[in-house]
Amino acid sequence: MNTTTNAGPASRPASARAWNSVRVGFFLASRQIRANVGTTLLIIIVMTLTYLNLLVMSGVMVGIVQGLHNERQSHYSGDIILTNYNQKDSIQNSSDTLAYLRALPLVASFSPRYLASGVLEGNYAGKLRLYDKPDVYGVNIAGIDPAAENATTDFSTLLIEGQYLEKNDYDQVLVGTSLLARYKTLTAIPGATPIPNVSVGSKVRVVVNGIEREMTVKGIIASKVQEINLRVFMVDSQLRAMLGRDDGVNEIAIKLAPGADAASVQRQIQQSGIGANAKIELARESEPTFFEDFSTTFNKLGSFLGGIGLVIAFIAIFILVFINTVTRRRSIGILQAIGIQSAGIEIGYVVQSILYATVGVVVGMLVLFMFLVPYFSVHPIDFPFSNGILAVSFAEALAKALILFVAIILASLIPARMIMRQEIVDAILGR
Amino acid sequence: MLEARDLKKQFTSGEDAQVLFEHLDFTARAGEFVVITGRSGSGKSTLLYLLGLLDTPSVGTVTVDEITGSSLPRNARTSLRLERFGYVFQDYGLMSEMSALDSVMLPLIMRGESGARAALSARAALERVGLGNYTEHKPARLSGGQQQRVSIARAIAHNPPYILADEPTANLDNASALEVLQVFGDIHRTGTTIIMVTHEKESLALADRILNLNQGTLGEIAHTPQSPAQMPSGI
Predict the structure, then answer these.
(1) Phi, psi of A259 (to 5 degrees)
(2) First-to-last CA distance in chain A?
(3) How many other CB atoms are there within 10 angstroms of residue B34's CB atom?
(4) How distant is the Cα of B99 from the closest Cα of chain A, in angstroms?
(5) For A286-429, where are the alpha helices, taking DSSP H only?
(6) pLDDT of residue A190
(7) What is d(CA B122, CA A327) in angstroms, rounded to the nearest whole number?
(8) Given strand B217-221, what is the order of strands in its sheet?
(9) Three-class SS string for chain B?
(10) Quick one: pLDDT at residue A187?
(11) pLDDT value at position A225?
(12) Contacts of A340 in chain B (CB under 8 A)
């Protein structure tokens, strides 16, 4: 036999020792994984669920606000919305503005709306005595061009009962659910009493600008957007007639062509001089301030819940590796005895954990982006105040994967290192 | 040469201290087959662990080829063990998830051999112990004697100058024990130094020297080593 004649440990540089430890780590990890396929699959499932928990909890929270934003943009504001300044009754030179928008190539459609305050009254036929309290509701009345509105905001899809308006539908209205007692909504105005016993076909009184007309409820509109749910809609020509207004649009919702950059179109409209007559806002800018408060709060809540998920993942891997190292204490002692560096054994555990986390993250991403996000986009969660989607960006998914990796590496390294500190003989003899 | 000088091993439990042995000297010359015997609890396995740098003495030094191994830092001691020693444990010390080939390859990879080269060396070592056809078998599919021979293959695969064996045949039936001792006989014939702790008479027959550890004192027992021809033949 040729015996070794080198000068001992000094002959093996630390860098070579470190590299060999890495190789041994991979070797040990691959053998453990191959020998325990069932356990490996189970841990990967746990990792996948942990990763999804990290993203889905916060994603649902953020998605509540995002869903509300989407609904508002899709069915109310469009990509850009022009509104009159507070001190003005309407957008000045509306006809010029509408003509300009008609000529803008990136504008797919737009819907001018005339707005007025008014009163909606129901059940008046049965209230003949003086002391009978009338069923009235102070409402915003919107005059719309039904075709333009539908082209811009898919408005007819919000119809839950009855039929959508047509251009010549005089004395017919669509009513938001928040105005009617039949529907329990969170968007009702506190203190106001929704009108009972009004449904499709009911006669209602609409009072605008001192003019009172009896109208028929043609349809009921339901939305999570307060501006829609608290309104009564009629064709624009009738409202203009009641208001005695030829011009003077109050809102113009603009839908842009697919792929158009809303901010640059906004700038373009601004530069045309329309900004002097109307506020020109992107959908996000036109949202009420509570949207931002909601968003901030839900983001914090989502991060908090995600943080709990991360701690659970850390503890799960820590316990897993700790139990593994404790039950394999003697084997670890033997490995050290035959010359395997502690670093190599530790790397073995870390490599296993990284593999679990990598596969868990990849499977989690596939489930998330190929199933959950598209599913909730089509079937949003019906929260009382929002159609919640699952709002997770790829960048966020990557960032949380990175956080998970760091947690998992620490969770596997700490118990492995704890067990490496033992005396070899104690480990071998089980002392 | 493997030397221990003025060794003392003391175990402390609370305020109680038990001295297993002290002022103990030991020398194994290159190529020697030294057997250490003694009653249960005499400290012979502890002495073997000290000589193999698996444990640190309370007092004294262990020198391996002029390197004072007992005073090296932990990582350097591990490297020295990898370079100079092969270990054979009473209950084999194999990993349940590893095949025979994997078990033998592991220290070779730690020494820096490529995967292919390590596999080649490991196969050769398994051939030497008569397990050339069992390379892919995991411990659960091997008999006790075969597992011990895998353990020996792992110990000799990197050609260390010293093999330390702790009761290697204690868990085996007579036939398996004889097979294992034959392997040790073959290894010894190649010039490797073997230090074995054992009770078995068959093992004593192989020894160049027999040392008895009794009440903390290491004494040599008069013994006539068998000539290689008298030793159990190779497998």
Answers:
(1) 90, -10
(2) 36
(3) 21
(4) 9
(5) 289-327, 329-337, 342-367, 373-378, 394-420, 424-429
(6) 63
(7) 28
(8) B85-88, B162-166, B193-197, B33-38, B209-214, B217-221
(9) CEEEEEEEEEEEECCEEEEEEEEEEEEECCCCEEEEEECCCCCHHHHHHHHCCCCCCCEEEEEECCEEHHHCCHHHHHHHHHHHEEEECCCCCCCCCCCHHHHHHHHHHHCCCCHHHHHHHHHHHHHHCCCCCCCCCCHHHCCHHHHHHHHHHHHHCCCCCEEEEECCCCCCCHHHHHHHHHHHHHHHHCCCEEEEECCCHHHHHHCCEEEEEECCEEEEECCCCCCCCCCCCCC
(10) 54
(11) 87
(12) 78, 82, 106-107, 110
DSSP class of A8:
-
Instruction: Indicate yes or no: CB of A339 within 8 angstroms of CB of B82.
Output: yes
Sequential DSSP letters for A170-218: TTEEEEEGGGBTTS--TTSPTT--PBSS--TT-EEEEEETTEEEEEEEE
As for the ipTM of the complex, it is 0.91
Q: Do residues A309 and A57 touch, judged by C-beta distance below 8 A?
A: yes
Question: Residues 6 or more apart from A335 whose CB is under 8 A from it?
Answer: A28, A345, B95, B106
C-alpha torsion angle, residues B129, B135, B140, B146 (rounded to 10): -10
Pairing state between β A211-221 and A159-162: antiparallel
Structure tokens at A95: 């006809």
Within chain B, what is the greatest distance between any pair of CA atoms? 54
Q: Which amino acid does the sequence have at A386?
A: S
CA distance B18 to A29: 41
Measured distance CA(A362)–CA(A168) in Å, rounded: 56
Q: How many residues does chain A have?
A: 431
B187 touches chain A (CB under 8 A): yes
Residue ranges of A 18-77 with Cβ closer than 8 A to chain B: 19-21, 23-24, 27-28, 31-32, 34-36
Mean predicted confidence (pLDDT) in A257-263: 93
User: In whole angstroms, what is the distance from residue B208 CA to residue A31 CA?
Assistant: 40
pLDDT of residue B175: 86
Q: Determine, for residues A24 and B109 on separate chains, whether the beta-carbon distance falls below 8 Å.
A: yes
pLDDT at A23 over 80: yes
Q: What CA–CA distance (Å, rounded) separates A86 from A1?
A: 99
What one-character DSSP code corresponds to residue A80?
Answer: E
For residues A13 and A399, the model is more confident at A399
Instruction: Let me know: does A291 contact A65? Beta carbons within 8 Å.
Output: yes
B50 pLDDT higher than 60: yes
Band (A128; pLDDT cuts 50, 70, 90): low
Residue among A16, A27, A339 minimizing CB distance to B78: A339
Residue B79 in contact with partner chain A when CB distance is under 8 A: yes
Tokens for A363?
Answer: 């499977």
* 8 A C-beta contact, residue A225 and residue A68: yes
Which of A247, A228, A268 is closest to A80 using CA atoms?
A: A268
